[in-house]
Amino acid sequence: MRVLLVEDDRRIADDVERALQASGYVVETAGEGEDAWFRGDTEDYAAVILDLGLPRMDGLSVLKRWRAADRRMPVLILTARGSWAERVDGIDAGADDYLPKPFHMEELLSRLRAIIRRSAGAASSLVSIGDVTVDDRQMRVSVRGVPVALSALEYRVVAYLVLHRGRVVPQHELEEAVYGHDEDHDSNALEVLMGRVRRKLGVPVIGTRRGFGYIVEEPGS
């Protein structure tokens, strides 16, 4: 899943980016407000981690402009501004959660997972579709309770489709969620990857809509 990290402190940005990548996310970074606003206004992200104290345009203004344009991706505010009044301002502007600095990386990852789940209507870190269960905390997929050995890319495919269950996910959207813009891959890489995923799962949970994309059906649909 693609996450936009907006942080002007290079040290913090590097630490968070490494932690996100280790947790299976595709990460894009912005170090100032105008670039962040443009990316969030023109690209689709599973979530945004947004600092408030940014050069060129402050984070609160960025968030307000996104929400005014009906950009609905979940946003976790990450900032040194820790007063209750500033937290209220952030939530009122449309933030989904707020984490003041300094912070523990595990808490940031936990809050990020939570806002992504809530945006997709999932309340738990465990989401089951038929025989397949995805645990976004452990980054693990199991079939009938047996863990399936998946690569990072294979996990991203399953996790994204299960998170967006019941909806046909276009191929280009899934490619961006799995590879991001910065990873080189062949034109048929997703099809090859999907073939491996289906073989490893061994159950027909991922469907294809020719000319449209891929879907994980809701149970009973």
Automatic annotation (TrEMBL):
Residues 2-116 form the Response regulatory domain. Keywords: DNA-binding, Phosphoprotein, Transcription, Transcription regulation, Two-component regulatory system. The modification 4-aspartylphosphate is found at D51. SUPFAM superfamilies: CheY-like. GO terms for biological process: regulation of DNA-templated transcription. Residues 124-218 form the OmpR/PhoB-type domain. One of its GO terms (molecular function) is phosphorelay response regulator activity. Pfam families: Response_reg (PF00072), Trans_reg_C (PF00486). PROSITE patterns: OMPR_PHOB (PS51755), RESPONSE_REGULATORY (PS50110). Residues 124-218 bind DNA. GO terms for cellular component: cytosol; protein-DNA complex. InterPro entries: CheY-like_superfamily, OmpR/PhoB-type_DNA-bd, Sig_transdc_resp-reg_receiver, WalR-like, WH-like_DNA-bd_sf. This is Two component transcriptional regulator, winged helix family. It comes from Rhodomicrobium vannielii (strain ATCC 17100 / DSM 162 / LMG 4299 / NCIMB 10020 / ATH 3.1.1). The lineage of its organism: Bacteria, Pseudomonadati, Pseudomonadota, Alphaproteobacteria, Hyphomicrobiales.
